[in-house]
# Entry
Amino acid sequence: MVRSAPFARVSNHAQCFNGPMTPEQALAFVREHGVVLVAAKGPVAKLTEAIAGEPIKGSWWAHAKGREIFRVLQSLADSPDVLSCRLVGGKVCLVHRRLWPAMIRAAARFPPDWLAKTGDEHTETGRHVRKDVPFPDWADRESLAQAEALTEEDALDALGPWSRAPGSRGKPT
# Structure
């Protein structure tokens, strides 16, 4: 498949946008890929590398584009179309709404804590406190209904090859 601008190949699993990535472009990146890792190594695209436009060695916080990365990640945290969870190998990732039904249908194949919506809350004292919402409490009615119409095979196909790889999930049911 040939990619046209604004995408450029960065590494084995990431693409970048030419120029600074806007929140809209980041959402489009997540929508296109369906599931992306925030920063960890793994079998799907890594959003922080796409934002930086290059592979990141060490922490993205120390990268020259660390502030831009933070700004874009914060914009996605506020998006109603993106779920932050630990779906890929227990690592923080973002899942676009279009794959929520597949994720819900295949839920029995993943450890429950991987399916929890992850996030943090800003307290009055300025601290950030991790606040997770367990699965399926975060799931909307539409996604739950769409999940019922899927077979498990269709759900895994939608999620991608990584969802069938050894070590990518809990015990199959």
